[in-house]
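Pilot study result, target chain (243 residues):
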Amino acid sequence: MSFNSRFKHIFGEIFQSEGFKYCSKLNVFAKMLNEDLLAFIGVKSAPIWNKGSKGFMITAGIISTYYDSIEKNSVLMIGHDLNLFLPKNEVRVSFEYDDNTMEEIILITALYVREYLLPVINQVFDFNSYIEYLKKYSIDLLWNCDSFKGESLILIKADNHDDFQKFFQQQLDELCARIDAGDVGDGYTKEMAYNDLFHGIIESIVYPRDKVYFDKDLYHEALKEAERRKNENMRKLYSYKLL
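Predicted structure:
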């Protein structure tokens, strides 16, 4: 039996009871968290260390109906390596197999996903919890709300007015602690850390979002674009048999 067949069989046995089902159009196991949020778990090939082996990685994440388009390429683009969801003290994992170990390694992978990824997904149930998820794992998807990039329209749909100052300070404190511990590159200073985080959080998220709120025409344009995307993506989800 091929790798893809074994992957579908093993992951199907474990994750169908969690509400996931295989979607051939997206080539992932997918689950609607609500009418606007789709969680997904997929697989793709990866480099190997051992000659004669084959490698793969898990790609997983959450996408909303307000993303530009829910399709195979967009799901692959915003999906994350399973390692991103592991605790900091957990050993990083990679998955290699040969014909004799394929089934065992796929099963081990599925157990990692169930233990570490599902608890993250299960904490996302509405726009606000999705924003918290994005803060931790995909903050760049909230950038540039004034040009409707990524998942930034979620900020408008959630009526979000968080100034992100607490989050900014938390990230700065963590990065400065890493600088003090020597865990970042030589020459990277706390001033650089402040500037990078201020740009990545306040300038890239808060200012563009507030621009939408303060510009009546831009705000209505954002709502119109959000509705267009949702209608288009809902049609796709119906055609994918996920709704």
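One observation from the pilot: The two ends are 30 Å apart (CA to CA). A full batch analysis is planned for the follow-on phase.
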